[in-house]
Amino acid sequence: MIHSDFRCEFYLIRHGESSSNATPGFAADTNFDSPLTEKGYEQARLLGGRLKREEVRFDRVYSSTLVRAVQTTETMLEGMDLPGMPFVKVDALIEQRMPGWRGVPVEEVYTPEMLAYIRRKGLDFVPPEGDSHRMVQRRVATWLEDEIIYNKDLSGTETSLTVAIVGHGAATRCLIHYIMGFSDRFIERISLGNCSISRFLFDSEGWALHCLNDTCHIDGSGA
To answer: What does pTM read for this prediction?
Structure first.
């Protein structure tokens, strides 16, 4: 049972631009564990600077174990003037895997026939040798429930937390889909820019959305 005075604000953050992001045109990343580009590092610094200005203080910070998410987390914390702050690296937060399509041009994969098949299958479509959206959603949601939401030592007590989760585009969309209870058709319609912030509150009343895909620190609209 969720304590009436339990409150957790989540910052779901996508990593900065990676080398794979910078070379579009393929159905899946040519390098699954690709590092940040210089632009990606700058995006992460801008993110950290914004969080510092807004006086955000995280009680817990989690990152995917993939290098681009780890580099984003480290650079974000440096921008917050918190270099070396410990954070937890979580395998469950890694990106959707599609190894059978790595390095294959988009036009060769997403033929009209394949797109029609993917739409029919929805969350249950499994790319070659990879993970369906449903598999990714189950992985990330189960981790979140076990770690915080249904962790009785936390949610069963009078506790207020601010938590950062630094992850990936598809995996974070799957988590947002789980939180919001959208229909299957919406999962591909959630736009998440590099180093974007999506904020959610969870308390005894359940989930509430505060913002989605906030990139004002990147595009300068909120500077």
So the answer is: 0.94
